[in-house]
């Protein structure tokens, strides 16, 4: 039954938002945490179909104690990860959250995450709108 519910969520009913919302999401996923770890990353692409910039100010998920917006940056020849307060998506543009760049950080899962599980996520924007979606859990890539 859980598999059927997950499949239905992933088949197009995975985004719910205010009817005036002009943002959409593709390529959403969250990585299954490595064994013994309590942190993982999530990725997606935000598309802004409106005539004005939108500003992502936060994210939350009931599946984790804390969710943050992050980016990788190079400083003094070192790559480091840092939290960011907001991410702007210009009018008619898209912003990709991907390994080595912008991403979502998830801390302290409330339960074990299984592959293909649908994890709820809410994105908050500066104008007060929220976008609710689900991210499928995928395996950590092998290095």
Written overview of the protein:
The structure is a single chain. The protein has 143 residues and is mainly beta. Helix content is 6%, strand content 55%. The protein has one helix and eleven strands, in the order H-E-E-E-E-E-E-E-E-E-E-E. Strands 1, 2, 3, 4, 5, 6, 7, 8, 9, 10 and 11 form an eleven-stranded mixed beta sheet that branches. Strand 5 and strand 6 form a beta hairpin. The longest helix is centred in the N-terminal third of the chain and has 9 residues, at 2-10.
CA-CA gap between termini: 34 Å
Q: Describe the global form.
A: globular
Largest sheet: 11 strands, mixed
Helix/strand structural class: mainly beta
| Residues in helices, as a percent range | under 10%
Instruction: Report mean pLDDT, rounded to a whole number.
Output: 86
User: How much β-strand is present in the residues?
Assistant: over 45%
Task: Specify the oligomeric state.
Answer: single chain
Number of helices: 1
Order of helices and strands: HEEEEEEEEEEE
As residue ranges, the low-confidence spans are 1-19
Q: How many strand segments?
A: 11
Radius of gyration: 15 Å
